[in-house]
Amino acid sequence: MDSAESPTKTQAGEDENYSLLCQAHEQFNNSEFDRCLELLQELETRGESSGPVLRHNRAVVSYHKTGCTQHSVLLKELEALTADADAPGEASSGLSLKQGAAAATVARYNRAVIYYHRHMFGTALEKLAPLVARLEALEKAMAALVATLQLQLLLATNQLNRAEAFLDYLQYKLNLVATAPSSNPTEEPAAVASASPPAATPSSVVATPGGAVVEGPVPGLGGSLQLLQLITLVLNRKPVVIQEDGTPEYAALKAQQYYIMKDFQMAAKQLMRINNECTQAGTVTPQLSTCIANNMGVIHLRVRHYAIAAKFFQNALNFDQQLARNLRQSTLQTMSSARSCEILYNLGVAMLHLRRPKEAFQCFLVPVKQFHSNPRLWLRMAEACIMEHEAKLVEEERQTQAGSSPSTKPYAPQSAGVPEPTLEFAALCLRSALTLTQNYKTRFHLTVSSEDVETPEPKDPTQESWRHPQDNNFCNPSKPVSLESLEKMMAAIYAAHSFVSLRLGDDVTALEMAEQLLACERLSDAHKLLGHMYAGEALMLMDKAAEARDHLDPTFVGTLNAFDFETRDWQLKSVDAAQNVVRYNLAVAMALQNDLPQAKALLANLSHSLVSSKALALRRFIDLKMGALPGGTPS
Prior knowledge:
By secondary structure, the chain is an all-alpha fold. It has 27 helices and no strands.
């Protein structure tokens, strides 16, 4: 039997089997799993022809009997069921073939649900693909389940354009969702939110003795699909009106909409209202607390309140640990609610802004195991290593000036497989980031904005395939990457790679990365300065001072945008500071070419605190060298 709600009678001669199915269905709903298994076993001994259905339901009931924690055992049984259905077998009756196909359909869906809850979204999409391909052939209840899970997987993997196209497909081809109410704002939101919205959980692995999967009401016009529809439209910056129904899901989505519209104050107020109302009603859960704390942290991170953001992220981690204390013995729903990787990713970024590189590095170590193909994450790890190394150098220099021996100790010997915030590991991270970014750049999808097209033709969802739209979603869990952000990330990787190579004595790689940086399109003034500085330093270290002087012409610094320096968390806070640094490096190049008088004249005008002490030392060296020349008097 393949009904989604209750067993149905197929033949008058099977009244007794039908009665047993009804009893098993009732016992399952009453959580009497032992009795349900007995009835299923009796059906099998009576020669009930729907063998695959009984086999599937027996596996699901056993799963519930163990407290919904032994999902690996259930997964193996489901894989065996789908393998048997795919394998060419002996000739069977039409009824058994139909029942086997129904059992395989439900088994495929259940496998995808398990992988979804285990955060294996790519695998879940792959397992669900055969059902999505024949979505129109499925009965409406099963189609709604498959569509709900598919849409949620597309959102979880940041495939926002494809999710919107799939939504149109469901609306116009299958009539599964209603049209969302829209508004007519004067201006469309300008940014995509980075805070994850609370998504509707797909049906868990629960089967009726008839063979279908269902828990609670079937998603439809008023269920999970409608919420997912609104989430999709909000994330795609579509003007929609969100009618709150008193549930935290719709209220949190309203906060998400405020965030996207850059109304951060209203977004924070909305989240606090949810927290207060749920606290008064006694409905606060660790999942809700985790979501609110994380999203409050994202809001404060966006407005540069880094210390407050870090505190919220730490609170979110504490709430999340209540869910993920023992994931091996947790239910699938608890497993899917754990968000430690995403929260640690956010906390690591906040720690970088707070100049706490050790803590940032430790935060990034956890999410990199799951999001190992995210180049932005590898770049952030490298930045933590660089910041830690520079902090150690500053501390050593301070102690040397104070007349005491450096107290910093090198890292204790550890296994080569244990990552440490060192420059060597930073070089590995940057090579990974560069390789990944170059690979993604070759297949980067350029979207044409409506402003570039004079008379855009309205799309027809009934004619276009929802699989055609693409998203540059290779930086999960971050939002999809635009062309501008891709170029900024490439420039940051080249600059960091050149700097680390200089520190490690790899002058050839440093020069190559600096030249690649200067060749980037839409290069910011700050990165342009870094490119010339690193290239000049690398050439001087390679005994090519004449070529280095071409990169150290101080006249180009005067054309740079001062705002680009003032808004960055760098030591160079002004064009004047940049001018002094470039002039000092140019004086070094002149000294290497024995152009001592001109170098000395250039050093005389350097008074900025960043280079004053070094300029004084270099000037003394030049004085000594000029005094030792033939005809001169040594000083």
